Amino acid sequence: MTEETTPVWFITGCSTGFGRDLAQKVLARGWRAVVTARDEAKVVDLVEGHPDTALALALDVTDEVRIAHAVKAAEERFGRLDVLVNNAGYGYLAAIEEGEDEPVRRMFETNVFGLVAMTKAVLPGMRARRKGAIVNLSSIGGLVSFGATGYYHATKYAVEGLSESLAIEVEPLGINVVVVEPGPFRTDFAGRSIEQSKIEIGDYAATAGERRKQTFARSGKQVGDPARAAEAIIEAVTADKPPRHLLLGKPALELARKKLDELKQDFDTWEAVTLGADFPTT
């Protein structure tokens, strides 16, 4: 594989979890990778031993100036970007009534607006070449909701909607969009990476409160393997026809199918009422 044909991946949030495993898998294949994190010191180990194919950069996806500098540095180093992986993001635990405005808005800045800013920064180059792929890390929580993670779900439902519209707009230009929807995986998501509201209301102890406890209790025991998830993402992105949606892990598949069944039941049960909302046909 020549330099011209060796793909260049730009991955956000590489300090832990999916981003780190994906960066390792990409570099192990001899491909080129731009690995980023807010603290560059947490990703320098990833580039060791890969002086010609890896570039480590400090990047906060909520800072558009830093985004512009990072994309410019990556393109100057490797000439182009073939795959953008919008992986940076985190969760927040709170019943809706318990949610605190500032941390919720901060999470939206990272999970949604940071993803948008990164996407807009790489699209001009991809459009010019009529080639590329954008991988947006959503979650099974972008399709299915639970108590205590409503605000996190809201960010991931936003990612789902944005990604589907983006795909319609850019696929005719030769750019693929893959939305990745993992279930529970053994990453730091439910550990040190997650934030939670300082407010706890007793009336939600059995719902959101119980889910808070379960989230921390399950951390480190999830069935999902991040290394295998990274392999699955690579397989999807490099397929002749990449999927629009990629579920990861058995729990995600089971939950998604259950959601489909529930939606169909509501649609079918209320069909007459639904159709009755139109003007009468003549």
Q: Structural class of the helix and strand makeup?
A: alpha/beta
CATH class: Alpha Beta
**How large a portion of the residues is in β-strands, by DSSP E?**
5-15%
Distance between the termini: 65 Å
Average pLDDT confidence is 95
Q: What is the approximate shape?
A: globular
Number of strands: 9
| Order of strands in the sheet with most strands | 3-2-1-4-6-7-9
- Spans of at least 5 consecutive residues with low confidence: none
C-alpha-based Rg, rounded: 20 Å
Question: What is the compact description of this entry?
Answer:
With 282 residues, this protein is an alpha/beta fold. The chain has helices at residues 17-28, 44-47, 64-78, 101-129, 150-170, 205-218, 226-237, 250-269, 271-275, and strands spanning 8-11, 32-37, 54-58, 83-86, 92-93, 132-137, 175-182, 195-196, 245-248.
Description:
- By secondary structure, the protein is of the alpha/beta class.
- The strands form two sheets. The protein has a seven-stranded parallel sheet, sandwiched between helices. Strands 5-8 form a two-stranded parallel ribbon.
- α5 (150-170) links the parallel β6 (132-137) and β7 (175-182).
- Helices cover 47% and strands 15% of the residues.
- The chain contains nine helices and nine strands.
- The protein has helices at 17-28, 44-47, 64-78, 101-129, 150-170, 205-218, 226-237, 250-269, 271-275; strands spanning 8-11, 32-37, 54-58, 83-86, 92-93, 132-137, 175-182, 195-196, 245-248.
- The protein has a single domain (8-275), classed as NAD(P)-binding Rossmann-like Domain (Rossmann fold), CATH 3.40.50.720.
- It is globular and about 60 Å long.
